[in-house]
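== Sequence entry ==
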Amino acid sequence: MELKKIKKFVKFMDANNLSELEIEEDGQRIKLKKNFQTQQQLILPPQSAITPKVEESAQKKINTKEINSPMVGTFYIAASPGAKPYVNVGDIIHSGDIVCIIEAMKLMNEIKSEINGKIIKILVENGEAVEFGQPLFELENV
């Protein structure tokens, strides 16, 4: 089984608060199990070191939005291999613009933006599997 696939299973476990997961696929069987420490120690830096980053992070969240995946499938940034991407970092998009395709059950679904903004980050790789609700793009308010 590919390491990339195993990492996705681990992320799935984290997202769903699972401590154990067993999968059988194509005659291969894998069992993932988390070991939890009974007691964890948390050491915090002085408050003055935390405050600027928290304020900066909060300010960033106010000025940004995300486009999330409406379904489970495979993310494609362009209509076909070698074709021009629907969007690039720096592009300004409007509600209704196609931003990507998600393939689900051999059907290609055009994903349209429901918000306006400037693409500041593409959060997934072309050909990567995505989950429902997973952030795909980070946009800045324009």
